[in-house]
Records
---
Amino acid sequence: MIKINNVSKVFKLSRKQMKDIGDGFSSRNLTAVDDVSLECKSGRIFCLLGPNGAGKTTLLRMIATMLKPTQGTISVNGFDTIKSPKSVRENLGFMSNNTALYDRLTTDEMVKYYADLNGMTKDEFQTRKEELFTLLDMHEFASRRIAKLSSGMKQKVSIARTMIHNPQVLIFDEPTTGLDVMTSRAIIQLIRNCKDDNKTVILSTHRLGEIQPLCDDLAIIHKSKLFFNNTFDVFKNDMQTDSFEDEFIRLTGEE
Amino acid sequence: MRNISIIFRKELKDMLRDRRTIFFMIVFPLILMPVLMTAIPKLFSNAEKKQQDKILNVAFVGAEYSQDLYQQFLDNESFIVYSEINENEIEQLILDDSIQVAIVISSNFESDIESMNQAPVSIYHRSADDMDVTQRRIGKTLDSYANQIRSIRFDKLNLDRKITDPLNISFHNFASGREQLGKMAGGFLPYLFVIFCFMGAMYPALDLGAGEKERGTLETLLVSPANRLEIMLGKFGVVALSGFVSVGLGFTGIYIAISQFITTNETSQIFDVLTSILQPETIVLVLSLIIPIAVFFSAILLSLSIYAKTFKEAQSIIGPLNILFFVPVIVGLVPGIKLDIITASIPILNISLATKEIIAGTTDFWLLAEVYTSMFLLAIGSIYFATKWFDKESVIFRT
């Protein structure tokens, strides 16, 4: 369970950053997330939809304790992200769209590193590793260095690393961006399994089409503000246009 | 502590599999530096020997005006002397390299010598890159002739040679061989240590900071239960160890170079002095000075690296920085600058000066204590800075 209450994030900009933004941007402050409140429930998949630069990644980073909210509170499985960041991270698995692996480590070493950081015992690691490596068909390249793996294999290692400590909350930031059909399908299956295991799943994307079959709840974020927050069924029932893209444009008032 | 150890072990394993790091940490100090140290002087001495042994074609214009001087050149087997060359041909022949030197004396050479005047001798040559060996070789023959003439003149005038040498000087140096070498090599060694330490720490720092950011692995590491202080200290440990190991290997490399490759009499004396210097207490003292500098470099390099968005940007920030660190070391090489109450408090310069004193065996306890205190404070300050720096969102997620 994730509870987000009136969360905002304001970044202080340098002169160079102000200049880079352009369009006569004159404020030293950039609000990346503006007064957002959400609730992601266990056993449900929460989809966070918004274009690039909407504030999705900032919000996810605040949930994962990488960034501190300027205002508001976030709790993950009952732990406050400011007061108990370590407990939050122990309950969390975070997978970005980048596989984020160490080329010079082997698959085994890579997964073991994160198991160790999560305080798993040798036996716990062996059992969980066996389970994941079998599920993802990873045994064949367990002792191969990451640099020598194909992109599909790397994605599997990234999943195993994220899931090794069996976290209760999972965050997937643009999980299928740039992946081939087979790997995308494997990830979607894995997300479904998480839901079946009663885990809390947040899925962030800028294209709803490919993940909409997974979606239980939906939030639309645009220009740092929340425009929609309800179940996906309500979203579909209330649609006044023919496609998700058109509905998104209608809701956000963009042309 | 557990997480620091996990991160340290992982980073160490990862780093030892990186060829660039291995080169700068192991190959550079252990092999390359000793090779350079022995090969470059050898190259110079070989080049000089080649010049010394080279047969010179010498034109002697005016041989008929001084048979004695002409004979001196003929007697020298390293010269082939030509006496039938006109003065106006000299320039072209030298430019063509048909001859290397021309000596021109005038018709009244003998009479000038006889009348105790100065006889003009013109020497033409083309020396730009042969280390003045040609000039020296010709000068030696002319000096020998001039000495003969001087002796004849002194005898003629019934004078003693002491008249022109009023002082009989002899130097008696009470400084031990260790002291003399210490003050000389002691200035040079810290320079090498700083290079080894900086180079050894640089690549791991680049990889563990900016490299991790660029690969996207930093984000996943930040989501692990390890906190930022633990992440920073785990990485910092590897960077500092790498800098320190480089210095240790540098020491070993120099020792091997001196003991194995340099075999002349002169250097075997140096080796004897070096062996007397390389006592356990000296090594421990010098290496203990390197620890705070390795800590300081590592904390600063890691902080700069984590600030950069990419590996390339980190390189462009850190590259010019080494000049800044080397300036105090170079200042320590300036003659007359000694370890005193002021210089002992200036970081890096104090390392340079204290190493000189330790190697020379002339260490003052209180000044050394001041050096340690200054460097210890600098090391602690740099770790504190790196810790705070790692905690800044604007640094870790700089865009």
---
Amino acid sequence: MRLLVTLLLLLVPVLGVWTFWTAEENGWWMPETVTTYGPDIDFLFYLILWMVAVFFVLTEGLLVWFFFKYSKKDDSKGVFSHGNHKLELLWTVVPGILLLVIAFTQMETWAEIKYRGNLPKSEPIAHVWASQFDWRVQYPGADGEFGTWDDVESPHLFVVPSGEDVVFILHSRDVLHSFFVPEFRLKQDAVPGMAIPMWFNVNKALREEGLDPKDPDSEDKEAIRLYDLICAELCGWGHYKMAGRMEVRSREKFDEWMAEQQANVMSNDKEDQS
Amino acid sequence: MSVPPIPSEGSAAASEGLNPRAPEGQRKGLGADGTVYIEHDHHELSFLRKYIFSVDHKMIGLQFMFTGLVMLGLGGALAMAIRWQLAWPWTEVPVIGELLFPATGGAMSPEFYTMLFTMHGTIMIFFVIIPMLTGAFGNFLIPLMIGAPDMAFPRLNMIGYWAMVPGLFFAIASFFVEGGAAAAGWTAYPPLSTITTAAPGSMTGQTYWLLALTFSGVSSMAGAVNYATTVVKMRAPGMTLMRMPLTIWSLFISALLQLFALPVLTAVSIEQILDRVAGTGFFTPTNLVVNQMNPEMAGEAAGGQPLLWQHLFWFYSHPAVYIMVVPAMGMASDILATHARKPIFGYKPMAYSMMSIAGLGFIVWGHHMFASGMNPALGMTFMVSTILIALPSAIKVFNWLGTLWGARIQMTSAMLNAIAFVSLFIIGGLSGIWMAATPVDIYIHDTYIIVAHFHYVVFGGTMFAIWAGIYHWFPKMFGRIMDERLGKIHFVGSFIFANCTFYMMHQIGLAGLMRRTADPYAYEVYAHLQPLNEFISISAFCLFFWQGFFVFNFFWSIYKGQRVGRNPWKGTTLEWDAPSPPGHGNFDRELKVYHGPYEYASPLVEEDYLMQTRKVD
């Protein structure tokens, strides 16, 4: 029994670390990020992961060791100790400092992504409306203004240009939803009654593998990349299927698509009138 | 224990007035060694007064425990249905499928799935974990461990149990009302929860859900008032605050948490009820379009703020998370020390760290709302306070490890479960740091990592501590000991399957899968997670059915377990001074406390334990 329990306790850190170690090749890991701030988030994730891993292995390892060592049959008394002031100080101050380091390293990235004051100065490209159970994206028409008759409405599909700051406003028509694109490392609840400005900059999507990501000429300008737009906040029975699509195109391809949509609106309008 | 003759009027003991305010019906006698024996009037209580409307803290504790165990079975069954759907969505549910869903050939509907996880969370939190920890162990242990004959307010205590019963009724009955049970998650975020057309569960089920919560809140409040008063006013002579066992500290602290946080939950529950039935506008905003129509036209509420609910709900429910784990920490500490035959390492840091967890617990609620649309600057402050709360948790882990260092570990079922508590709580605690870090939380918020995290805390942590507590205090409850061999079989399987079930949820969450989804494979990118989900589900089924060993052991041991005396574990704290099981009034002699609670391996005495009540010259 003693060996069995020791083994069980030992398996926790061993398999725990092994699972994380092999997770990426098993597909049990974060998808590669494609936005400008994605790598910052990933860096902070790994920073915490490494600190946590050290404490995980240390504490679980001590637990296994102490259990194994001190569960032997022994009729003598245990150590009569009520604690040790220096040790208490040590394991209060060291984790305390590490935790403060973790806290302070997060702040810049958080502020960059979410603070309204740090929102890129560009005009919003679209209003994104969430409702049970679909996404609607509203672009301005040829007049460049929202809320006019020639607005382009794109159901389920959010088309954005790559390599530039994209600002959009998130709304909900009914209940809470959440705008989540895993590859963008972006998640924000859509709240009825609130208009929440968001931004991202997809700067990796159009680069082919093996090409130098720093070389702008290596971009595959023809490529169109699709990502899942996921609702991450419970919004009713159809929450599981509230799927949208993010389509990332080069600037030219984006303009082409936009012109096409605007022309469609025009011709539909003419049909309505005739 | 036979009681020596009662001293006549004017004799030494009587005139010393050992307890001039002795309760009515209590007599005393002086033993040869100077012990003052107490004899309580033996009331023959009717069945109704003894088992149903009891005012005895031990019986009320057992009532909470049995209710909690039954609800644990129900909540677990709901979890099994959830796991079935996640592994094999839209296929026939075995056993109950044909019965419940004849229209679809036995496959569950997505509406039903939303009700499943809503009620799983609700039942487990409000009708299992909180009643088990504070209701069962709080009631049973507080008077016994501080040397009091009962709670300060026995009748209020009885009301505390019976206030929970209507809550149970509403929770279970909600499955059978129009539209079915609540389906807005255990967090009941408006407007999904407030607009009747937004979800089938928001028709009548949600109102039942709110009533269930309100009644369970009244129950907890009655308990909390009682526990706090009893701990403050009714400790035996010599039982200073710093001589209290950590279990008592933890129960006292969670009683204070409930006292300060619960009124907020009760208030917001009533506000949401008003939004739903009286057309007030606390949480439902204006100008919505639900099912192609503006609910205001149908006379529903409008003009409110959805985020207001989130703030107020989490103002209670985050402290509630600590109500669900702090008593587990206290119990695990006592059990570790007893079965390690060694004093708790760092008693004061242990007590202070629980206090700081509770104190910080009031200023971290916003970490549930980093993605909610709350001002991001607030997110920054909530992040710092949340990350800091990892510190007292770390201190506790190190002190538990320090307790095991140089110990003489007894391989009892109670000890194994308490060690498992430490091992699994470490995982749950560490994964919490990701969630606290706001930028990282952007990615992992509302994914399965969160599910993994809180199951490691509440199942891996609290549930194992509850098992440890039951194995440890069962002899005191029933005068018999649970079967050790079955206990170890139960432990090994539970430990393996709990890890297989919950650890892999980290991986699914890292892949980005959001929680509360009825069909993970609606997104192509998650199709490859199906085998992993199957593995988790099979582990969960094994975990569920493995509990048969526990259930059998529990009930068998009540009747057939080996009889034991007062102190089968050679513990030091006061409950082991009482008979097993303790009679009315708990103690049959007057207690005086001379030592701290963890004098194991003390050099003052020959044995390896020195009871708190034993005077050493």
